């Protein structure tokens, strides 16, 4: 798609590449080494991937981890996919975040992503149902 940012990524900015996916550094990283794994084929989100693509997604995830382990030596990872604008997806082309985590990068990492986001139920959402 001509107007899609991820459909127009230049080859020289791709760190890893396989048959169906490529990886780049996130331009707004949460932590050093924050990568995006992006589908070559334009599809909106995870639910639009073909079954045959998942093998290659698994392959590039492991290659990304190996590269990040070597270069950045993180202590852990957050891996995430936003599906839909209401889930925080801003570019409607499949991409997965691989975010290296480091000891003491937050005061208390317990709860992972829940540590940086107020749970929906506390915002009164379930009271509206």
TrEMBL record:
<dbReference type="InterPro" id="IPR011146">
    <property type="entry name" value="HIT-like"/>
</dbReference>
<dbReference type="InterPro" id="IPR019808">
    <property type="entry name" value="Histidine_triad_CS"/>
</dbReference>
<dbReference type="Pfam" id="PF01230">
    <property type="entry name" value="HIT"/>
</dbReference>
<feature type="short sequence motif" description="Histidine triad motif">
    <location>
        <begin position="93"/>
        <end position="97"/>
    </location>
</feature>
<protein>
    <submittedName>
        <fullName>HIT family hydrolase, diadenosine tetraphosphate hydrolase</fullName>
    </submittedName>
</protein>
<feature type="domain" description="HIT">
    <location>
        <begin position="2"/>
        <end position="108"/>
    </location>
</feature>
<dbReference type="InterPro" id="IPR001310">
    <property type="entry name" value="Histidine_triad_HIT"/>
</dbReference>
<dbReference type="InterPro" id="IPR036265">
    <property type="entry name" value="HIT-like_sf"/>
</dbReference>
<feature type="active site" description="Tele-AMP-histidine intermediate">
    <location>
        <position position="95"/>
    </location>
</feature>
<dbReference type="InterPro" id="IPR052908">
    <property type="entry name" value="AP-4-A_phosphorylase"/>
</dbReference>
<keyword id="KW-0378">Hydrolase</keyword>
<dbReference type="GO" id="GO:0016787">
    <property type="term" value="F:hydrolase activity"/>
</dbReference>
């Amino acid at each position: 798609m001509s107007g899609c940012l991820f459909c127009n990524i230049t080859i020289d900015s791709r760190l890893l590449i396989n048959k169906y996916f490529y990886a780049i550094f996130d331009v707004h990283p949460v932590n050093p080494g924050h990568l995006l794994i992006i589908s070559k084929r334009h599809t909106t989100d995870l639910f639009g991937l073909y079954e045959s693509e998942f093998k290659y997604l698994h392959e590039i995830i492991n290659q990304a981890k190996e590269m990040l382990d070597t270069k950045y030596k993180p202590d852990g990872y957050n891996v995430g996919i936003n599906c839909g604008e209401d889930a925080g997806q801003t570019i409607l082309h499949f991409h997965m975040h691989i975010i290296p985590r480091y000891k003491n990068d937050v005061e208390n990492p317990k709860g992972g992503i829940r540590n940086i986001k107020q749970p929906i139920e506390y915002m009164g959402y379930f009271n509206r149902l």
